[in-house]
Fold these 4 entries.
Entry 1:
Amino acid sequence: MMHADFIENIPRFIEQLKNIHWLNPLELNFDENSLYYIDNTIIPLFNKGTLTMEDLTAVSLPLIAYCGETYIRNHGGEWKMVEDKGRFYAIIIREGKQTNLVAMVLDTFLYFNDDELPSVASGYFAVADNFFQMD
């Protein structure tokens, strides 16, 4: 669950991601191609049973922070917390428009079918591409 202080903790979350033993911190450079590196690391480990859903759930907030920061560093924008019925959501606002990369990352880990983990990069680019097309 996301807390109201998520945005203040983004640097800590990203540091946590860089300290995970199955990811190379040098590859996590906020280039959009680094999302493919994450997929190419996480998906095979998950498919082999080396990583569990519990492992992936534990890194969901660090991955949300990393994906959002990757977007902001490449395209601009800023984080904003919104509250709806007592639940908090982090969104990215750019040029008066908003997108929810958070939902994409959470959906990737929480709503997969047939024990096959979806691609973080595919979800990220689907959201980012739609964001670019908004008028």
Note: The beta strands are 78-84, 87-94, 97-99.
Entry 2:
Amino acid sequence: MTEYLLGVAEGDFTLDYDAIAARAKERWRDAVFVPSSGQDSEFSYGQLQLGGAAAPESLRVDANFLPLGAGIQIEGSDVDRAAELIALVTDLPDFPDDNSVVLMNWSVDFLHLRPSMTPDEILAAYRG
């Protein structure tokens, strides 16, 4: 399983995890959001699971929402689905166009994300 980090590197923008989870549920029938509780909530807002627990690992993508809207740890082998999720995030209202949101471990250098990127644009930068 490969791991990527989508993060707000600077500025005041925060990721709206509830909006991301709602959009993911509209996009994928098998999307499940599991909110963190208790001590786990110190380290994670919750986890968005794409592919469902019964799906083979090669088709799963898990997105761990980091505290305070600061970023998303994305794990999975399905690069296409990961790119679709990243594109969905860039389509949020008020997504910044100031290079403040980056994707790490996806390409050789940080990939600076901009509003309304397509999955194809994101895949074109993939290092794999």
Note: Strands lie at 2-8, 32-35, 46-50, 61-65, 71-76, 101-104, 111-112.
Entry 3:
Amino acid sequence: MNSMAIPCLTESNTGSSRVAGKKNNSKTYPRLLVCEGYEDYCFFSRLIEAKSVDGQSIHRFHIIHSKGNTNFYNRIDAFRQETPKTFANIRHILFVADNDDTPADRFSLVCNQIERLCGPGTAPSAPLIRKGKNPSVEVLMLPWTNEKGTMEAACIVAAREAHKQHGRRIDDFMGFIGVEQWTSESRRSKAWLRSNLAIRCERDPFISMGDAISDPRHHDLIDFTDNSLDRIARVLAKVGR
């Protein structure tokens, strides 16, 4: 795959790219991260700013969100049309999606869109396998390869470690209401994190995930320096190296 030929679409998706947490469409970093939603956009911007790997900061990415896991194609085409000079310098694309409760199906959904973008046979055979060049493509599934759940599940340990006493109380509460009988792992992880944020955020128990992650007033809610996020940070650090 020497180039990405994306046909012009009539449907567009508005929005700016973010570079390590800052709006910036004039820079030409060669890495593009495409995720599902605004909360994921906040998650990766904050992680890139907070984490270092082997003593080095993570390279900057252009970060865009597609408003859903079926809209990667349209969002990338919109990014290409909005910022053609920036897009021309992209050499690596990292797609990020949630596994939800069906990891294999969700991965296939991403791969189908990669092949629509780049042509047949261009999608990787498994998550975290880089394929092609100029641009290379890679898929990161959250919370991790073949693990059921979402971005919220990736945040649980970091939230628990940020306030261990409340973390234990939420564990007890989850046990009391019988979440182990729920059939959805995604539902369990979201319920745990939502309950934790609700009791710990003094300003607003209904705080959004985006604000909990990106608003500096709430940076104590989820510790983005926690070791539980190292494996995701290492994936980011390897892109383009």
Note: Residues 53 and 234 are 6 Å apart (CA to CA).
Entry 4:
Amino acid sequence: MTDKETIERMVGRPLAWTIDPLLAGVPAAGRLITAKVGPELVWSCCRELYRARTAPRAFRALFSALWVLDHPRVKADTGRDTLAAMLEFGEFERLGGDVATVWRGGQGQAAETVAAGWSWSTSYRWAAWFAVSTVPGEPGGAPSVVVAEVPPGQCYIVPGRLSELAGEVLLVEPPASVLVAGSPVEWEAEAAKAEATRLASRPLGLLADAGEVLRWAVSSTGTEGAA
């Protein structure tokens, strides 16, 4: 069975038109499939691809969409070691350089507890946004923002519109130490700026994703014809 047939068996024939771009790693294809079939089926698909060690770019597109939509499901079923192995298998890009400065926003938790989280940002502003915003699957409470310096090789970039806007990275090892960054007044101000940016760049959701997938298909067909 080919990779295409394997994925079609898992997600269904009506979504067959999205599978070629998915195999090419187009993030929009992963978002479309996740929106249509739901997180539970996508997570099952991700685990099957990972176990078989096949179609890593399709895995990356699906996992990225799933993480944005339902990261508590992933965290409930995996540990950091498995996360690192999955991100390596999916050929996720890592941060470059010698040292990476990253921030993380949380609510109702001590700084050390906030620092234990998996999802961080390369932007202080967006960490503040996460600290003061309501995030599904995260506890509510008083906001806090921490900052750390970590090896960039431990920071994997998550493809996705909001993730890319927010500079989201997944840390496969918790930082050795953290500091509290800024103050509640600063966090509110920075979060307001981030929210304005988010609203200004808000895409058309599934319509935009379908357009991106179709443009990829047309481009791919044109390239094949030219060859």
Note: The beta strands are 100-107, 119-121, 143-150, 155-157, 168-171, 179-180.
